[in-house]
Structures are given as C-alpha cells and as structure tokens.
Amino acid sequence: MFNNPYDASTSIGGCPCGAHASLSEHNSVQAAFAKLTQPPHSDAAPSPSPATRDTDTLMADLFEAAVVKAVLGSDPSRRSFLNLVGSGTAAAAIASVLPLGFIREVAAQAPRALEKTKLDVGFIPITCSTPVIMAHPMGFYAKHGLDVNVVRTAGWAVIRDKSINGEYDASHMLAPMPLAISMGAGSNPLPWALGAIQNINGQAITLATKHKEKRDPKDWKGFRFAVPFDYSMHNYLLRYYVAEAGLDPDRDISIRAVPPPEMVANLRADNIDGFLGPDPFNQRAVFDGVGFIHLLTRELWDGHPCCVFAASRDFTQKMPNTFQALMRSIVEAASFAHNPANRKQIAEAISAQNYLNQPVTVVEQVLSGTFADGLGQVRRVPERIDFDPYPWHSMAVWMLSQMKRWGQIRGDVNYAQIAEQVFLTADAGRAMRELGGAPPAATMRKHMIMGKEFDPANPEAYIASFAIRRT
Fold this sequence. Notes:
By secondary structure, this protein is of the alpha/beta class. It has a domain at 23-108. It has helices at residues 23-37, 55-72, 75-85, 87-97, 100-108, 130-134, 140-143, 156-164, 177-183, 233-244, 263-268, 281-287, 313-318, 320-338, 343-350, 360-368, 393-405, 415-422, 425-434, 459-464, and strands at residues 118-123, 147-152, 170-174, 192-197, 200-201, 203-208, 224-227, 254-257, 274-278, 291-296, 307-312, 370-372, 378-380, 385-386, 447-449, 452-454.
C-alpha cells in the first residue's frame, strides 16, 4: 500500500495478478519462482522501504494509495488503465474530482499514538512557569492525552540535574539553560532542546527597604545581589544594567545564585541588598514590607524571554508524538494566559500550596499588572508579565553573546547554528498553527536593550562595543 499508486509496475495491495486469494499468497508464489529463476548474486537495487520515509509522508502516501485503489479497482484494472492513459493523465483525472492535496494534508495532521502518557515535569514555583503549572489544574495536559505530574522543585541546579539524570521527562527551565547544557557550560555537554518560551518580561530588581534613597545604580558599589542561577536572563540583565552605569559586576558588586523561594528571606535577614529575580517574590517582598520594586525588567528590554519549556534531544527523538503533545499543551496554556481576562482565574489556580504556595492577592498583582511598588504608589503596568511561546533564534544569539561577554564560554562560537539546534522554533510555530495561531515567518529579528540595538547577524561586534566585559 506504500508504493506509488500511479506506477503500473507496482502493487498497492491485494493480489497483483488476480490469481491468488491474498497478497501474502501471491508473494509466497512469486518468491519461490524468483528463487528458482534468479542468478545466485544480483546487483539489483532494493526497492525503497517505507521505513526510509517519515511518518507524515507514510500516512499521506497510504491515504492517496487507498483513494486510487478505490477509484481504479483491483491491481490488474489499475495497471491496465495506467498503461492505457499514462500516470500523469490518471493523476490529473482523479485530482479533478477528488481533493488529493487536501487528503494528504489531513493525513499528515492525523493524530498519532503517544509513546508515553504518564510524565513527570519539573518546575520552580514562580509565575514564569505559569503555562507549565496551569496546564495541570486547568486540564490542558489532559486535553492532549497526557497524564502529567508537575513536580515542584527547590532550585535550578536541581532542575538541571534531575533533567539530565532522566528523573524528569521535561521541565520548566531558564531560557539560557538549554544552551548551556548543550554546550557543556557548567555541566557535561548534552544535546538539549528548547520547545517554547514560557513567559516574556515578568522580572524585577527589588532592593531592601533601607536603600530607598539609593535609586541610582552608580551608588551600588559594594552591594550584594542575588540572581536565580548563573545561566539566567536575570544574571545577564543585572550585569548589563550595572555595567551601563559604570560598575563592573564582578568587581564592584557581588552576585550569587539563590533559589527564588529563598530570596525574600535573605533580604529580610540582610544577607543581600537586593535581587533581580522572578515573581511572585518581588511582589512578596513588598507584601512583607522588606523591600521595594526598583524597576521592572521590561524597562530594560521590553519583551525579553525568561523561562522556557525544555527537554533532552533524546526525549524529543524517541518520543516525538509525546513531545508534540506537550508542546501543544504548553502553547495552548500560554495562549490562554496571554488574555488578561483570564489572569484572575489563573491566579486562583496556581496560587495553591502544591504550586506557588502564595497568597492569591500577591499572584493577582503580578498577573494583572496592578500592584503596590513598596514606594507608596500603586502602579498599573498590564505588560508586567506576558506569555508568548515563540522562541526567536535571535534571543538565543543574544544570550550566547552575554555568555561570551562574561567569560562563561570562550573561543569561536557559531551563534546561528547553536541557536537553530537548541531553539525548536519550527516545532513551536507548528504547534501555534495547529491551535489556530499565526507564528512569525522569520526566526531572527533585531532587539532593543536599554536603548541599544542588538543585531543577531553581528554578535561579535556587539560584544566588542562594551567597555566592561571579560573578553
């Protein structure tokens, strides 16, 4: 059935000669005859195997062969007709009355069996993980045939190690982590895949209440800051911000990695002067009266990525249907979260103890963008956090440029190639289209960060333009 239905020399099911009850009986007779008549050695090339074609092509071929067989009848009849009018004329005649192109498209999109349905997906309890979390209580995983156990995890190093060890099938990660894992920065190299962006914006620089009179970063010399992880947008944005103010982030201030749930406690205990971290902990510092929001990171780069949905390349290759079902779940959840009208419902769903374990009021302030800033003002910033799953390759190139700027990676870097290998932009775009979305046609674009344009076509010149750098 996988042979070309317009080739008169091939069979597409049934008995080709019409003399046998089944195709298997016909084949056994033909095999016996061939054994008697063929020379001991043959140089004939083997017929193409269905295994050499991808699943989508096989399904589409099978559908078209079934249609042709239904129209032209048994193999003897089909062959006679093809020999009489020719394959091109036959194909055109059938296509004129049957939408074969549409049939092939439907076949390519036909649901395919999931290789695994029970999955463990790790997450850190922050609002950046909203799509991964909300997809559980709000039924997005179940809608796509998955039984997902979302596992609350203490910190990013634990997420990385459990993911690498295979304890998690997939996980919520910081956007630079799949790049770092793939390149062996901070761990042994292991091919990793970033499926979709979890959130854009959604971070802030929060300072201890005692520093209300020190709003100028030029006055921060000697300050102690926390970020969630070395390979994080938080680290790169904080370094960028203080360096633009003339401070060397490795010499004039100290930056250390602190798990997000421990940031407010460290601020209260005066172990740190501030942090650039994810919500809801910026808002929780205000809620607890121990800190104030100095600025939202969207003021540095509006639309910057933060957290992502990721899995090992091994998982994506061995379980492609399961991975695509996960992708659709996350992309659909992100689309739902993008609508401000749904934010209150989402806040109630993800504030529970087994998810964020935060007061609903705190989470609502973050998701709605109407919040107290700890400086006596109520601010209204609807774009404080948003959800756009499209993983631009240019975002990956920027992250790689910062990894090189600060000495986390060295030597020649093929920025575009690494971005294309790790950021699965085509897969995310396909999931968006399948759910009725319209992903961008491009994968690269220029970004504006603190008033300076980043051109992904020339990252080395971008790095060289900074006076403060490690390279």
